[in-house]
Amino acid sequence: MIDSEYDAIAELALRIEPSQPELSRRLMAELERADVHAADDLPHGVVSLYARVDFVDEGSGARRSVQLVMPADADIAANKVSILTPVGAGLIGMREGREILWPDRDGRRRGLRIVSVSPPPGAANG
After folding, report:
1. Burial group, residue 62, by CB count within 10 angstroms (0-12, 13-18, 19+)
2. Within the chain, what is the greatest distance between any pair of CA atoms?
3. Which DSSP symbol is given to 85?
4. pTM summary value
5. Where are the beta strands (DSSP E) in the chain?
6. Please, what is the angle between helix 21-33 and helix 3-16, to 10°?
7. Is residue 95 classed as helix, strand or coil in its secondary structure?
8. Which of 14, 61, 76, 94 is most buried, with most CB under 10 Å away?
């Protein structure tokens, strides 16, 4: 995870804790296990904010391509998914080829497999 994103996501998680404690807890857990890098040193294939992510929902077999964004930039019609959605919180920091079990909006655990990650426009690792 990029160091500046770590700080922004931590601040966001703390801000939503009173109204969305479970999501706040999940985000903080992701931050605790994250390897933090400077933007220039983020390894190729790691999901960061504003990256384009292709993933497969292993339960349904559906493939999706989304851009992971902060809440103010979310637009589901444009496939821009907020970090504050269950899938957004699950994707941050994942690597190409990895899979995670993550609860969906209904609380069911789903396997999400990262197929590819395209860095944000202008990113040093792209």
Report:
1. exposed
2. 37
3. S
4. 0.81
5. 52-57, 63-69, 80-82, 99-103, 109-118
6. 160
7. strand
8. 94
